[in-house]
């Protein structure tokens, strides 16, 4: 056999056959399929840790505010001159956002309609630009929404005839919202046979027909370690049914979701629950976590199995979606003397 023939024969023996290549590709595909879920879980664990850290930082801001003013901020404030602020706006100077807070004139409403109401247009423009500024601490990295959305307070939403017109604005979202209290079907389910009369949360509000005194730590009779201040709820103007956007509810109610850190409606979130498939009913339902993100119906995260909650003492708890109605309601309400050892 010649040298050339021997070399060709040797080269053929060293080459891969088509079957061998397919086997190798199949093995690689199996390994990738096994590895991908682990990578995704690791990434979600990191995102959830960052979300928990956001809540801890908010807790520090709440406590620094309390140290300064001897009370917590109002959950929302709506004054007779049409100005409005949320707990998020009030916390800005205490979460290293003093420069952003300085751009907001508290005497001028942050609505598109404010200039036509006689307020200085330059201040209105500055306010609108400020509230549209994304603040990382208000956004959970697991959430999938855009940073800014369109919002409004409809005419007469706060009280009879107030506001006298629709108020609209564009603002950066907040994935955290107050825990105002429980009501509706979820409240009935939670307190069936118990009969607790006070079903309100830790933070009070002020404005038309509302309280005039901000709450203090001493007012949380259940204990700050047993009571939520805020919880995780996907912000923005999209209404979700489980993990899918509900286009009908988004069109009807999305702009009133209270989904921004500067939105006064972010300070009003009485939990009535939803159905387990995320469906909306006006009276609520038995599911309070990860079924619907609709304001005054539920808390909602993209973490599997539950959502993060900031306690009154500044600690953070991950609350399971399977938490019992009474346990969850007891951690929202603040004045019933309910002490919960475990979720």
From TrEMBL:
Residues of the signal peptide: none
List, alphabetically, the InterPro entries matched. DUF1559, N_methyl_site, Pilin-like, Pre_pil_HX9DG_C
Q: Give one Pfam family.
A: SBP_bac_10
Specify whether Membrane is a keyword of the entry: yes
The record places domain DUF1559 at 40-323
> In which domain of life is the source organism classified?
Bacteria
Which residue windows are transmembrane per the record? 21-39
Keywords from the named record: Membrane, Transmembrane, Transmembrane helix
Among SUPFAM superfamilies, the record links this protein to: Pili subunits
Keyword hit for Transmembrane: yes
Q: What is this protein called?
A: DUF1559 domain-containing protein
Tell me the lineage of the source organism.
Bacteria, Pseudomonadati, Planctomycetota, Planctomycetia, Pirellulales
């Amino acid at each position: 056999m010649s040298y050339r023939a021997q070399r060709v024969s040797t080269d053929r023996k060293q080459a891969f056959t088509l079957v061998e290549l397919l086997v190798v590709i199949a093995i690689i595909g199996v390994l990738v399929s096994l590895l991908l879920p682990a990578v995704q879980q690791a990434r979600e664990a990191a995102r959830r840790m960052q979300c928990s850290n956001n809540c801890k930082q908010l807790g520090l801001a709440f406590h620094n505010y309390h140290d300064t003013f001897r009370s917590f901020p109002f959950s929302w404030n709506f004054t007779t001159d049409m100005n409005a602020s949320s707990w998020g706006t009030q916390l800005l100077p205490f979460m290293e956002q003093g420069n952003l807070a300085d751009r907001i004139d508290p005497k001028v409403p942050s609505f598109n309609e404010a200039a036509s109401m006689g307020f200085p247009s330059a201040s209105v423009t500055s306010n609108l630009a400020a509230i549209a500024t994304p603040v990382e601490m208000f956004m959970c990295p697991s959430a999938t929404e855009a940073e800014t959305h369109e919002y409004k307070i409809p005419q007469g939403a706060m009280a009879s005839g107030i506001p006298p017109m629709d108020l609209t604005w564009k603002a950066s979202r907040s994935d955290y919202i107050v825990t105002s209290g429980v009501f509706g079907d979820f409240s009935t389910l939670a307190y069936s046979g118990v009969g607790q009369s006070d079903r309100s949360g830790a933070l009070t509000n002020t404005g038309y027909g509302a309280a005039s005194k901000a709450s203090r730590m001493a007012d949380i009779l259940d204990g700050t370690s047993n009571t939520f201040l805020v919880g995780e709820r996907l912000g923005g103007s999209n209404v979700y049914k489980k993990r899918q956007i509900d286009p009908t509810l988004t069109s009807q109610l999305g702009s009133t979701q209270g989904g921004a850190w500067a939105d006064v409606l972010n300070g009003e979130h009485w939990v009535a629950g939803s159905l387990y498939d995320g469906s909306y009913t006006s009276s609520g339902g038995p599911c309070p976590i990860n079924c619907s993100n609709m304001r005054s119906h539920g808390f909602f995260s993209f973490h599997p199995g539950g959502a993060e909650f900031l306690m009154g003492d500044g600690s953070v708890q991950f609350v399971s979606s399977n938490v019992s109605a009474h346990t969850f309601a007891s951690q929202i309400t603040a004045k019933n003397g309910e002490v919960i050892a475990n979720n």
